[in-house]
Task: structure prediction
Amino acid sequence: MKLETKTASFDTSLYLESGRILERFDLTYETYGELNADKSNVIVVCHALTGSHHAAGTYEGDTKAGWWDGLIGDGKTIDTQKYFVICSNVIGSCFGSTGPMSDSNKGLPYRYKFPVLTISDMVNAQMELFSSLGINEVEAVIGGSMGGMQAIAFAVDHPKFAKRTIVLASTYATSPWAIAFNKVSSESILKDPDFKNGYYEKGSFTDKGLSGMAVGRMAGHISFLSHDSMQEKFGRDYVAQDGLYELFGKFQVERYLEYNSYNFTRSFDPLSYLYIIKAINIFDMSRGFDTLSDTLKVVTSQMTIIGFKSDLLFQAEESKKIHDSMVEAGNGKHSRYIEIDSSYGHDAFLVELDLFKHHIKEALDEQPN
Result:
């Protein structure tokens, strides 16, 4: 599989939903496969909150493949011998695209001068990228979780862009439950003295991470899993080296949360995290319309919406609501809802690929109505 990583710079202003303007911005993106002559074989993949443009393959010397490597590649479900796949790091993130710790025109990091973004802003920035590449229509837009929010925004804000839209483990509007978990994360970051009220130096957390952010991330991990998946994965197993009656002895689930959360804070910028969860919190595709059905009347893309039964963060009924609203809008012929019987929780869209990859292939193979 041919894998390339590039960064595109744009000097044209990006007009944001808030009314503010981002005068210039960069987008880092990764491509897989070969673009055909008439640029008709493109699939756009959108990443989730803590994801990046690195969705598949490995870099030289790397041991960890991209976050959806099981789906994207030569001969895989999203077949890079057939499709040219693009995954862009969203604006606001910290993996090469312009975000709050990027330098502004004054040569200093934006920090809090960076504008609050919405999911639609992230999508509009990507549309600038695709336009610069001469790509005006794609075979599909696919995403899970926050990536699913982007996929829906593509379908509503740019209805002629994608022939197919595939949404996994996502929602039409972020629920109070999810906002509450994000509040734990944001408060944990803001109250950590090492965060320095957002005026920390670049690279401050590369070695040790940020403790407050790690605590918030632990809460996030809990929301990504389910009762059954935790029971199956960890049970009541205790760390073998720790004594049961040692005050700070750990169960395996505790060690898992510590290890993953602190590792995460060494690579993900805390200000970026705050800005992205704000974008997730305010996401509501029905904003400005009387009903969600009214919003979805403009959709012409063939929608495949996949929910997961044990998903606590974005419940399956939220995914089904999108389909039901498509039907109410008289757009039912453009929508199909699939519910996956998974016990893994929200993260099923990242790890239980065998349960749904055939549905993605079917969606890609069928002719849009």
